[in-house]
Every structure is written in structure tokens, then in C-alpha cells.
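Handout, section B. The chain below has 310 residues.
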Amino acid sequence: MAKMTKRTECFMARTIGFIGLGLMGRGMARTLIRKGHRVSLYNRTRAKAEEVASLGGKVAATPAEAAREAEVVFTMVSDPPALFEVVESKDGILDTIRPGAVVIDSSTVSPQATLRVAERLKAKGASMLDAPVFGSKNEAESGQLGFMIGGDRKVFDSVQDLFEGCLGKSARYIGPQGMGAYAKLVFNLTICIMLQGLNEGLTLAAKAGIDPGLMYDVLMGGRAKAGIFEFKGPSVLQRDFTPFFPLKLMNKDLKLALDAAHALAVPMPALAAIKEVFSSAMAAGQAEEDFSSTIKVLERQAGVEVKRRS
């Protein structure tokens, strides 16, 4: 049964390998360094690792080097192929992982990818937690992320302080291996469906002649109010699509969610429709913008811009 754990503190410095220093990973790695952990850093683009290491970490030439002395190895990569590469390829984590070490994968990948990697690590005497996050790059930098965790409960308990004392404000244990991955897909598909509702409502309001900013205020003053609206609404109305979470990554996550739904024979009509909107946005060159920029697909078709007028 899912359980919200009590917040703890980092109670000892650990030797940690951190692999994947993109938009979220760099903030997480910097937080671990600031909390006093010994962190070995790997990224395909070495300059990103060197930037993070300026706080006190050590740059590794390969994933294997980052994992060699580590008690805990974090991975934060873009998709299942990237995870397989850093774990299974030559000079990957499997080459040097120590028996008893814990690999924490905070990437958003398929449950099947998680189970595959967990089995490979188990053969080496290591354990794995699938621990995807929710939050933005700002929360990653400030240690305020949320985690959804799948894997052995005893393994989670042994590293709980890293989640709630260092990197996050909450860590919810979901269940056995793969359940964290499933939970993250559910989380992201729900966010996208909700945001599409806001986008469609504001686009209709703008086309009808209502100030979208005023319409947004009305929605937020009633039962339509939602956290994702509060987070993304103001930036949409200001036409600010700076990527807190790039559209291309959310597009990948929605595909993973659709694949999971098909595998389990779960109908997802709304998700299928939203995925088409994301595909249109990708085709229009919006891959690097924030995922809230999907409103532009509606705007182009409606011939209107959604922007606060006063």
C-alpha cells in the first residue's frame, strides 16, 4: 500500500555516482554535493559534468568510472535506450557496480525497461529502485522534488534519507519494481489531459472575445482551480514558453503511457487525442519549448492568440 514517509535528514555522507546531468539531473547532483556527499559525475557532454563538479564533485570519463566506488548510483537520462546504454554498454554501470550497491533510476522510462535493468543489476548483486520525480528544475536545484518509488521496501528504507532529507520534500513508496515507473506515466498523462482542458477553454474564450486573463481568473476562483493551472497558466498568458520541462520529453512520456495502456488493454481515448496534439507541436518545431506550448496548436487552428489583455 502506498505510504507517505516522514521527512528525514541526510544522516551520513555517501559515495555517490550520478549519471545524466540534463535539465533535472544537474540540479539534483548539485544538491547532493551541497549536502556533503562525495559525488562522481558523468554526462555524455563532459562540459556539463565539469560545470557541476565546480561545486566539489569529481568528473568521471564513463558510467563505469562513476559507479566504481559508489554506494549509490543515480541515473537521470532521457529514455529507455539511454538507460540501457549507461547501464549495459561497454564501460557501463554493470562493468563496475559493487555488490550491495543501489542504483536509483529517476528517469521516466517504461516499466519493462525498469524490470530489464533491475534483473541485470540483481545478477551483479546490486539492487535497483525506480524513483521518477515530479517537480521542475527549480525544485531539483532546491531539494524540493517529489519521488514515486518502486522496488524492494527494505532497499528504499536503506536510502530514504537521500530522497527526503536531501533531494526531495516527499517520497511515496508505490510498490514492487516497476510501480514507480507506472506511477510517473499516470502522473504525466493526467497533467497533460488537465492542461489541455485549460488550453482549450482559454482558446475558446479568446475566440469568443473574452480576455483570456479574465477567464483564467474566473476558473481559478471556482472549482476548476488546479495546481497545474496555477503553475502553467500565468506563463501561457504571458507567452513565456521557457522550458521547465521540454515538450519533446513530455511527448516521449505520453508515448510510453500509451504503450503501457495498450499492453494492459486499458482504453485511453483522451490520452490518444492529447498525444496527437503533442505530435503536431513537435512537427511545428516546438520540441525545445515548454510542454505548455501545445496551446499554439489550438491557436494556429483557431486563428487567435491566447494572451492576458489587462
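Note. Residues 3-177 form a domain with the Rossmann fold fold (CATH 3.40.50.720). Compare this with the example in section A.
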